[in-house]
Design a protein that fits this description.
Layout (H helix, E strand, L loop, with lengths): L15 H11 L1 H13 L4 H12 L4 E4 L6 H10 L1 E2 L2 E5 L6 H5 E6 L4 E6 L6 E5 L6 H13 L1 E4 L2 E4 L5 E6 L12 H4 L4 E4 L5 H12 L11 E2 H11 L6 H15 L13 E3 L3 H17 L7 H12 L4 E2 L1 H5 L4 H11 L4
Parallel strand pairs: 1-9, 1-10, 2-11, 3-6, 6-9
Antiparallel strand pairs: 4-5, 7-8, 12-13
Helix pairs in contact: 2-4, 3-11, 10-11, 11-12, 12-14
Length: 341
Amino acid sequence: MNVANPPLPSVYAVDIKALNEQIQKESSFVDLITMEMDKVIVGQKFMIERLLIGLLSDGHILLEGVPGLAKTLAIKTLAKTIHADFSRIQFTPDLLPADLIGTMIYNQKKEEFTVRKGPVFANFILADEINRAPAKVQSALLEAMQERQVTIGDTTHFLPKPFLVLATQNPVEQEGTYPLPEAQVDRFMLKVVLNYPKKEEEKLIIRQNISPSGMPEANAILKTEDIIKARGIVRQVYMDEKIENYILDIVFATRNPKEYKLEKFVSLIGFGGSPRASINLALASKAYAFVKRRGYVIPEDVRSVCKDVLRHRINLTYEAEAENISTEEIINEILNTVEVP
């Protein structure tokens, strides 16, 4: 055996039928969470599905949309369905890193400094309007997201498990905002762009909000241990080597479009998806299959989550911006060009 290049582990010797039955059984709570969220959130099925994907694959989510699309409400409702700690942080230009992670407080009685933990020490963090906070605060949050720990004084404190950051940003107002650096946006597993509800959905929203009985509430049906267990099962979802190669082709097409007969994108893409894009696309595809109560990944799963995983990981050149070409158009073209297994 060549020790320098050991053989890849045999992850494909799997009993698909037995695994599929196990996943169908273990994923039954997905329907329960969806039912609880549907009590409060009218429509926005796409957003609810993406929130579940992030929850199940241990990936942070950035929600972008105009005000009033229930971004904050959806995140609060998801947190309510689980017996877990929830913190909402309203990001403002005068916020300091200590307001987020905590600080050292002098105790006069004991004549010593004690740690006062900030709101980041919770299972679910709602970072509302993250682009309104200055760079130091953004980097403090993004470091916590990546390292799953915070250093206050000389001591490192581990964040609770599960730890999930769900950030929102408003794309309309740019005055008085601090856009997230592209390298830091990569820390988010998914960037979900929301649209307005349909007319029939909005009629139900009006009725629900003016009802004499008030807004319905979601019930807590899961514990944090259930989420941690489910994340382990999501990773067991079977992914064939052909699907792995399909994911690699999609990501590599963003880096080397010429190799995939997409020469027109050479001057439009500054840089493509990183290896983190490949990892997150694979994980999100597994989580999507789990949400659909399937024990194996199909190409359609990859295509369904592809835009949300890649839209914030493709850097456009000035030429692309001048021609009004969006990352969504590039991803669509890649999906239409790369051969589906």
